[in-house]
Design a protein that fits this description.
The protein is an alpha+beta fold. It contains 3 helices and 7 strands; from the N terminus they run βαβββββααβ. The chain has a single domain, classed as Peptide Deformylase, CATH 3.90.45.10. Belongs to the polypeptide deformylase family. This is Peptide deformylase.
């Protein structure tokens, strides 16, 4: 099932998401599959529960699209669900990258993040994992993790950049956004 993507301005995007209970975990595999379908239908590389109107600690990523196949780096992409995730540590050099978000269509901005993370989570098969990720995969995870913490990439932008995009953000809250996928805009 493809969900509409929740647009900027909806209060759910600012809520800290709750963990899934043991009972709720029974249906999480279907939810993760639906989230992958929604993300892929919107040509995204990540999608978090709050972005589909569910204030739960789940996000899915596919960082393969962010990794240049011709680059000489060792980084491999990852397609995975992260359930009840907790970042344990962010470390390494900081680097900036132009980020965007399915909930904020048409707006991008440079965000500086640490190059590596250590994270504990359940995958869609409910296997408990604790892993270290680096590079673009770490960045995608950090962006989606921010969603379950009630943060958006625009929170990291410079004051000047925030002023420059203010009218575009206001338009999104009013339902005026250029997008090619189903969206749910804040109620007036």
């Amino acid at each position: 099932m493809i969900y509409p993507v929740v647009a900027y301005g909806d209060p759910i995007l600012r809520k800290v998401a709750r963990d899934f209970s043991e009972e709720e975990l029974k249906d999480v595999k279907t939810l993760a599959a639906d989230m992958f379908e929604t993300m892929e239908g919107a040509s995204g590389v990540g999608l978090a529960g709050p972005q589909i109107g569910i204030a739960k600690r789940i996000f899915v990523i596919d960082s393969n699209l962010m990794i240049d196949e011709e680059s000489e780096g060792e980084e491999k992409g990852l397609r995975s669900a992260f359930i009840n995730a907790k970042i344990i540590e962010e470390f390494g050099e900081e680097f900036g990258f132009d980020e965007g978000c399915l909930s904020i269509p048409g707006i991008n901005g440079e965000v500086v993040r640490k190059e590596s993370i250590k994270i504990k989570y359940l995958d869609e098969e409910l296997n408990e994992k604790e892993e270290v990720f680096t590079g673009m995969t770490a960045r995608v995870i950090q962006h989606e993790y921010d969603h379950i913490e009630g943060k958006l990439f625009t929170d990291y932008l410079s004051p000047i950049k925030k002023r420059l995009i203010k009218s575009k953000l206001n338009n999104i809250t009013k339902g005026k956004a250029n997008h090619s996928y189903r969206m749910r805009f804040p109620k007036k």
